[in-house]
Amino acid sequence: MIGSTDSHTGLTTPEEDNFIGKHSGGEPNKDRYKHPIAKMGDVEYKGYSMVASGWAAVWAQENTRESIFDAMQRKETYATTGSRMIVLFFGGWEFDSNDANNRLPAKVGYAKGMPMGGTLTAAPKGKNAPTFLVAALKDPIGGNLDRLQIVKGWLDAKGELQEKVYDVAWSDDRQPNAQGKIPSVGNTVDVANATWTNTIGATELITVWKDPDFDASENAVYYARVIEIPTPRWTAFDAKYFKVKMPKEVPMITTERAYTSPIWYTPKKG
């Protein structure tokens, strides 16, 4: 996974508060939110539909071209929609809950499992399901963290693709509802002033999760997703700076996130 921009400005401006636009016609001005940027068939897309994201993050051993390309080849990468979150995701058969208390999660992750981009094969004797270590640290000047999720996809016995999203760690001592879902973290965004407060959410989240629905005979894939608390969108910053009253259909709040390269599970043949 990577999350680079699709901009044509030569500028790296993927955060909401410095979004220059995707091309010269979308540079900041009081009317850019309503300028048409594309037309597909009978549908015309306005400027406010542009998104500012994102970043490609690479876990390289050193800051060199060779090391970065090595990391990309082994798929040890993740993406964000603009925030500079630090995200770790490891899979294996030996992780336990105590590993989530380690202040060097990468060290225990590499020692006991494999990082994002890797493939798990048949379980060792006595292990009935894979375990995953996932950790995230907030952007120093961004929004706090709402929750960690693991998204699982698998091929069922009929050969059909299935998917399920698991909330595995979350902030603010929330409890699952009757349907097992974690309620919203809330919203502290002050749209008029294009700001928010980090009075909800967490600065870091870390956990070890074991797949409760694992079937050793099925091919599966897992990736981690990190969700931030709501923060102002670039349209809110434009509205404040240019003193523009945005129409109701213009989104003013966004929820930044990160998502990792997957870890695959391949059953043992024969």
Number of strands: 16
Instruction: Give the overall shape, derived from the CA principal axes.
Output: globular
Query: How much strand content do the residues show?
Result: 25-35%
Strand-and-helix sequence, N→C?
EEEHEEHEEEEEEEEHEEE
Identify low-pLDDT runs.
none
Largest sheet: 8 strands, mixed
Q: Measured on Cα atoms, how large is the radius of gyration? A: 21 Å
Helix content: under 10%
The first-to-last residue Cα distance is 32 Å
Mean of pLDDT:
94
Number of helical runs?
Answer: 3
Structural category: mainly beta
In brief, what are we looking at here?
The chain has 270 residues and is mostly beta strands. Helix content is 10%, strand content 31%. It has three helices and 16 strands.
Description:
This protein has 270 residues and is mainly beta. The protein has a domain at 85-265. Helices cover 10% and strands 31% of the residues. It contains three helices and 16 strands. Strands 3, 4, 7, 9, 10, 12, 15 and 16 form an eight-stranded mixed β-sheet that branches. It has a four-stranded antiparallel β-sheet with strand order 6-5-8-11, covered by helices on one side. A hairpin with a 5-residue loop joins strand 9 (145-155) and strand 10 (161-170). The radius of gyration is 21 Å and the shape is globular.
Pick out its properties.
270 residues; four-stranded antiparallel sheet; 3 helices; 16 strands; globular
Helix and strand topology:
Layout: E1 36-40, E2 43-46, E3 55-58, H1 65-73, E4 77-80, E5 86-92, H2 105-112, E6 113-115, E7 119-120, E8 131-137, E9 145-155, E10 161-170, E11 204-210, E12 220-228, E13 231-232, H3 234-242, E14 253-254, E15 257-260, E16 263-265
Parallel strand pairs: 7-16
Antiparallel strand pairs: 1-2, 3-4, 4-15, 5-6, 5-8, 8-11, 9-10, 9-12, 12-15, 12-16, 13-14
